[in-house]
Amino acid sequence: MAFSDIVNQVYIYTNRPDRVNETAAAVTAATLWAHHSDFYYKDLVEIPCVFEALAYLQQVPLSFFNQFRALKYIRKYYPGTGPNNPPSQDQSPNNLPPLYGMYYDPGANLPDGRFFKIITPDNVLDSYRINKIDVAYVAGQTIQLRSGDYFQYALCGYYSHPIATQNGYTSWVANEYPDLIAFRASEIVLKAIGFDESAQFYAQMAAELLAQMQFSNIVAEGE
User: Fold this and answer.
1) How far is the C-alpha of 55 from the C-alpha of 158, rounded, in Å?
2) Is the pLDDT of residue 84 over 70?
3) Is the Cβ–Cβ distance between 111 and 149 less than 8 Å?
4) Backbone phi and psi for residue 11, each to the nearest 5 degrees, phi listed first
5) Which end of the chain, N or C, is more open, meaning fewer C-beta atoms within 10 Å of its C-beta?
6) Is 122 helix (H, G, I), strand (E, B) or coil?
7) 66: which DSSP letter?
8) How many CB atoms neighbour CB 98 within 10 A?
9) Is residue 18 scored above 60 in pLDDT?
10) Residue 154 pairs with which residues in a beta bridge?
């Protein structure tokens, strides 16, 4: 449903079409509230990262991702490789060996597809106080990657924010559960103008729809 359609629905629920700016702001806030109520697979985006050169350590600025909310996964991949065409371990300009003697035999245990473990910056060392390998963490506005073998390509999966403003409004919640956003926005508007009892009614309606949405959208595969 379009942003303007939800706004018009809120006007009907609140009977306050004069609250133009407040209603638009409430729809934006309600959209963000709905998407941020959990980590939904429908908010996942996967994009490839191609680095300038092969290296053990790589960095990805968060500005590389559109509407970045949170990191889900990062894995290595090698374009055009497979069991019969494994990636060469000698691609490095300096022919460096993998860290800690980790070498992948051609055709067996290929590094292609290996996932980085997402950790926190204070968990980069193992019990021997040595840097962990095949790990990724967010530090400030940058994702730091430390690999056991040099690599140049990665697939990054992240949760994105919706575009919740009128221009370019994009929300799967608005398409599938438009009343959830309209109920929540109506609650916000009514509470702001002092109609607490009516606001509570729409809050309850929004809570019930939110529970339905969470039940149906936590996993991608139904049973």
Assistant:
1) 23
2) no
3) yes
4) -55, -40
5) C
6) helix
7) T
8) 17
9) yes
10) 49, 76
- Using a 10 angstrom Cβ sphere, with 0-12 exposed, 13-18 middle and 19 or more buried, the burial of residue 56 is middle
Q: How far apart are CA 17 and CA 11, in angstroms?
A: 5
Mean pLDDT over the full length of the chain: 87
* 67: three-class secondary structure by DSSP: coil
Q: Which two tokens stand for residue 54?
A: 């092969």
Distance CA 146, CA 2 (A): 43
**Predicted pLDDT of residue 184:** 98
Length of the chain: 223
Is the pLDDT confidence value at 36 over 90?
yes
Cα–Cα distance measured from residue 7 to residue 172, given in angstroms and rounded to the nearest whole number:
16
Tokens encoding 101:
């003697």
Give 9's strand partners: none
Token pair, residue 46, equals 């996967």
DSSP letter (8 states) at residue 78: -
Q: What integer pLDDT is reported at residue 143 of this predicted model?
A: 97
